[in-house]
């Protein structure tokens, strides 16, 4: 099963090809590590520690003179083992490796020690891992260039033509972001003296799928090249390391952090300026066949000059006519997730990003998130209440997996105009289009950019006219929220969950996936591992899952038990009061399983869901479905219905399950209660983490 991100153009098709100034045979370039490199190594002690030896390798050839030559590329001719003649003798085959030794590119040359044996002049045997051996010339060259063999084997395209940077050429300054799958650090590039952001990604190098998943983000980033898209400047890793840092230009703000700064109020022209950049960035992504799938304020980064760049392509994927495999619907942060994804669509396109864009546009005027749902059920309800429910025709035509469960008996009336009557009319008109419940009515980035909002006065601000803000990021907002919560104490706990204030930080797209992280951390213990310690389940005690926005009970087997579980279908069915509840629990499961990045989570936590997915053949272009395993007891003969379990125990739905009235409220109340429990638990967990971290 080919990963879809390896299709299409080669990753380095879009890597700038600068003038080649130097051809160097690495045999002649061998040098002893110089003093400077040792000195630098010391500076990165902290990273070397958490980087599983990333910083422990010598810098080898040190700073070649070429390094200081701006806007030049060093081309290395590296002899590599002939793919056909796979012995140790070096064939005089040469591979070109690019190195742009300008201030803006960070890739480094390999050390000769890594490439050629000192005495014989033959190649060192590439380090093999459990994954597979290096079998062809290109991969061999990548290993020689300093890439770990497991990475070259599994994700060669992501590193094609690049040479890894060493951790010891950076000075780590502070942690600036914590995502579901990464920690982000502010650092200084000791070669260029520039500030950079180092995103440490979590994956398990013993797990090819997990590596490919990480590679997808890199491949996508390398395919994009636009002023409004974060550019991947390089990668830090080593042959002995199990971790990887992505190097980005350092950005002072993110839109979520900035928007929530007390006293910061954006003018209409300023909002236009940000929205314009967002749409231009998205237009570029879409034109390169990339869906971002996690557009939200904290992923829109701003530099000191107010240039906006779309960041975090961890959930991005390719789309288009070549994309035959269904996509996962478990993407996009809940508050910004379009209804078709909540209804289980696996065949979607650019319009998912446009929905999120509409949410952000309205939020910037509104001063706070417009639909802060806590569960998928609640999110969908909020959407229908604001944007109306889809037309009969749409329900019929779209055949969305959860349509039967969530189609309201009575259609909901749209009230966007009433809700946002304070918005300028041109802004409201654009919000109306972008927040169309039916995806096809949302238009394109291009049509949005042509809309009156951008073509009428006041025009988008000139960057020079905008104020310079104090650095403020989502992580600061989260810290502030935490602090405020602590101060407020327990008395206001209930109100908190009901109110969303200006600048409330959005849940992560994958906030529900702590279990998944835990699994990763098990493979790749690092400094953050303690934060996500896996607590052994106490046998016999049903527990509530530690998810932030969805709750599921965990049985003594450690499985997430959903109503209707195949373990004890009858008992489970008895506990169900209505189909509505079943629907809710079903979605709660999905809420827990936004695991677009790591479907392996399901193998642990959601066996039941696996059954559904396995059989629904929703082989996801995102790899999440690759992790699917046949459920225990699965036989070919049993018919599985996505979202409904085995046919034998399937409930036959004769009509809409959610009425616009009482049942839904009851269901939401139940969710509310479950959320309270989960929030309390999560808070207790966070406190422990804080204590652990001093
Ligand atoms: N280039 C950068 N410069 C400065 N800060 C950055 C940069 N890239 C990311 N950050 C900060 O780090 C945070 C987390 O980064 P990112 O969103 O890429 O990680 P993630 O693990 O994918 O997060 P999430 O789980 O929220 O999707 C961002 O919200 C941002 O505040």
UniProtKB/TrEMBL annotation:
Chain residues that bind ATP: 199
InterPro entries documented for this protein: CDK, Kinase-like_dom_sf, Prot_kinase_dom, Protein_kinase_ATP_BS, Ser/Thr_kinase_AS
Keywords: ATP-binding, Kinase, Nucleotide-binding, Transferase
Superkingdom classification of source: Eukaryota
Composition-biased stretches (Polar residues): 491-502, 540-555
SUPFAM superfamilies: Protein kinase-like (PK-like)
Biased composition, class Basic residues, residue ranges: 28-44
One example GO MF annotation: kinase activity
Signal sequence residues: none
Compositionally biased tracts (Low complexity): 45-69
Keyword Kinase assigned: yes
Region (Disordered): 26-71, 459-577
Ranges where the Protein kinase domain occurs: 170-454
Family the entry assigns: Belongs to the protein kinase superfamily. CMGC Ser/Thr protein kinase family. CDC2/CDKX subfamily.
Protein's name in the database: Probable serine/threonine-protein kinase At1g09600
Gene: LOC104739556
